[in-house]
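One thing: can you check what follows?
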Amino acid sequence: MAGAASPFGHEKSELIQQLEAAADERIAPNAKDVDKNSRFPQEALDVMRELKILSSSLPTELGGLGLKLRELSEIASTIARRCGASSMVFAMHEAQVECMRFGSVGDPHFEAILRDCAENQLLIASITSEAGIGGNIRASQTVAAADADRVVFEKQSPTLSYAEYADAFLTTARRSEDAAQSDQVLVYSSKEETELEKLGVWDMMGLRGTCSPPFKVNVDVPAANLINVPFGIISTHRMVPWSHILWASCWEGIATSAYDKAAHATRKKAKKQMAAGEALGDPRLADAYSTLQALRALIYEFARVFEEQAEVAPDAKSAEETKVLIADAMALKLNASMMSSKVAEQCLEIIGMPGYSEGAPSSVSREVRDLMGARMMVSNDRLRRAGGEILLMGAEV
């Protein structure tokens, strides 16, 4: 496979080629069962652990692979072409790892935690959603009540992805009882320090393998497990851009899966068209390809620009630079959620009835359903409102 080309226009790395081979053999064959039974994609997690992908963003001095964000984006896309839910687990995990690394630079306690994450390929889940705040992750009612030694709190989360399979958690909470809801901190807890009570089921239209039902969570950890950098800074400079780039890469990969099936169906139709003397191909396939290529360009360019900006400390960026960073991240999420869904819908039309069937090899039912969830992960309406406010008033809103 040496010299094989990536959809993003460059030669595939050895890691991507290894991932493709393992994903074809162990992730893709289980994707239908993961979706049908709304079960966790354990096979995908096993592959990620074996290839050390769960520490891919960590620097080599902490035991990671030291990969750039664009390389993580390609990993997400590669997995998503086989199973969208598996890719989303990877994307959500990696965003949490980077939030923890960014927020704890120079802290020996967290350096030890990150080394443990790399050595043991720990899966990190995010507890940011909270009942009563209407989906706004930049507000918390829960207080990280701390004394000299411990941080103890309870939180109810309406959606908590892969909680029962995670090795550790990063939870948002208010800094103190008298702090504003937006004055938040991140708290790290191992699964042994986190008590989970499931409050419902995860029976959704798509992305069923993320296993994201509601939970009540009780955390009891050493005070040293509280990340001192405010979550607002972490969210602006890492969580939002990283999440939106990696989510968009997942959606691009899912849309690519649908496109590949549509292209295969079109090639089969071409034989009949040739026999009948008709014009070959389907113009809708060209439209889908064009949209897919535009999406890839958006993802790759924003990831490239962000990688450059990430070298600059947050306090060294101007208010205008920060505003543009957040606005562009939101724009990427909005465009990616709509463009990827459009591609899948076009592919469904191209394939026709077999694409609508759950049992047909050319079915794109799972891809269409998974991509419908893209506009719900931080709802597009909420992002449009927030983006409008930021463009008018600045990133501090």
Remarks:
- Residues 63 and 118 are 6 Å apart (CA to CA).
- The domain at 124-227 is CATH 2.40.110.10 (Butyryl-CoA Dehydrogenase, subunit A; domain 2).
- The chain has a mean pLDDT of 93.
- The two ends are 49 Å apart (CA to CA).
